[in-house]
Amino acid sequence: MALTRSFKELVQKRVADDPAFGEALLREGIDAMLAGDVDAGKAVLRDYIKATIGFEKLGEATGTQPKSLIRMFGPRGNPQARNLFSVIGHLQKQAGVELRVTQERR
User: Fold this and answer.
1) What DSSP character marks residue 81?
2) What is the pLDDT of residues 23-47, one digit of tens each?
3) Which one, of 67, 72, 71, lies nearest residue 86 by Cα?
4) What contacts 19, CB < 8 A, 6 or more positions away?
5) Sequential DSSP letters for 5-72
6) pTM of the prediction?
7) Chain mean position to CA 52
8) Using an 8 Å Cβ cutoff, are 60 and 53 in contact?
C-alpha cells in the first residue's frame, strides 16, 4: 500500500514536535530488522530519515551517495551490513540515543 502525502507529512510533523516519537520510530525500525522483518524495518527507517536528517545530510555524514541510501532503504534495497550499521550508528548519534541488543528471557 502506497503512503499518501498527508501521512508522510503527519509523520514528519509528529517527529519534529515530539522527540520521543522520533526515538520510538528509530527503535521500531531497528527492532523490526533484528526480528527478521527487514522490509518493514527499512520502511520505518526510511520514514525516520525523511522526517529527521534527510538523505542528503545522511549521505554527507556517512560518506554514501544519497541516491544509494534511497535505494538501500527502498522496497528492493539490500543494504550491506557495513553501510547499514554506519547509517544506524549515525542516526543514533544524531538522535542522542544509544540502542542496545539484550537477551529476553522466556
Assistant:
1) H
2) 999 999 999 999 999 999 999 999 9
3) 72
4) 95
5) HHHHHHHHHHHHH-HHHHHHHHHHHHHHHHTT-HHHHHHHHHHHHHHTTHHHHHHHHHT--HHHHHHH
6) 0.86
7) 9
8) no
Q: What does the domain layout of the chain look like in residue ranges?
A: 5-95
Residue 29 near residue 41, CB atoms below 8 Å: yes
Burial pattern 58-70, b for ≥16 Cβ within 10 A else e, equals bbebbebeeeebb
Distances (CA, A) of 22 to 5, 63, 69, 103, 106: 19, 24, 19, 24, 29
Q: What is the pLDDT of residue 2?
A: 65
Listed residue (51, 42, 55) closest to 84, CA to CA: 42
pLDDT value for 4: 62
Question: 74-102: string of b/e by CB count within 10 Å (b at 16+)?
Answer: eeebebeeeebebbbebbbebbeeeeeee
